[in-house]
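Model it.
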Amino acid sequence: MTDPERTPDGHYVVIDGRRWRATDPAIPEERRAELTRVLMAWRREVGRTKGTDEEGAARAGVQAAKVALGERGTPWWEQSDAEREERWSAGVPVPGAGGGTSGAG
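Modeled.
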């Protein structure tokens, strides 16, 4: 699989002609992979809970994972190195973990 096209500044990926904020490239590979797994689990949970009272919690999980990855919230290129590390190191809720989190939380 090839990497998606990026804008010249590297801040966005372009998929089907649409720009999406790129994942923070400074995130250590192991943590990036962990956050991506959590994000995908929350996306599956959104599908499973669609139209139920639990859907809101699943969407909040997607939001938390995307913020940790730098894809939402304050743009990673506007944050200091310390702010970036704090963002990706923060605990992110994990679906079905009974309130558990991924990472230092």
